[in-house]
Amino acid sequence: MIRINLLPHREEKRRQRRQQFYLLAGAMVVLGALIGVLVSTIIGGVIEAQEDKNNFLKTEIAKLDKDIAEIKRLRSQIDSLLARKQVIESLQGHRAETVHLLNELVRQTPEGVFLRSIKQNGLKVTLIGYAQSNARVSTLMRNLDGSEYLGQPTLVEIKTATLKEMDDRRVSEFTLDISLERPKEEDKVAVAGGAVK
């Protein structure tokens, strides 16, 4: 016997195709969602890793900034210490100047000249004193000009004064500027070399 299918086969095929389409569309949506979640997770991980790197770099930069500040502070301390060292070395190099000044004044002061005051300001020395005559002041100036450690005597003032300590004797009161002459570096080396020999 022949069987005739009276069921609407076309509708059945359409229904099957529609089901396949919905299944396929659902699978695509799920696959798209999975891919979106996967991509989002990967991008989130990359961003988090980059943020970790950035935070690490920030902390290292902060440490380096502290180190740089410490280095600057140490450099300023070194500069300060070097400046102090130079001052001390210059003081060490010139500490005998006062001794030379006093020795030379004792040697070069002629008879009849009395020094009342000696003031030093850097390399300039001001002498105030009394002399029996103006000629004695001239002799003092010539002697000081010929000295190894003193030079450039300049008479600032000379006037007549009466000293009560010397029975109202009339003397010449004078003010004289001289300059200290520091030995040059070659002389220092020569003196140091002579000391070593």
From TrEMBL:
The chain crosses the membrane at residues 21-47. InterPro entries: Extracell_DNA_Util/SecSys_Comp, PilN. The keyword Transmembrane applies. GO terms for biological process: type IV pilus assembly; type IV pilus-dependent motility. PANTHER family: DNA UTILIZATION PROTEIN HOFN, TYPE IV PILUS INNER MEMBRANE COMPONENT PILN. This is PilN domain-containing protein. Keywords: Coiled coil, Membrane, Transmembrane, Transmembrane helix. The keyword Transmembrane helix applies. It holds the Pfam family PilN. Residues 47-91 form a coiled coil. It comes from the Bacteria.
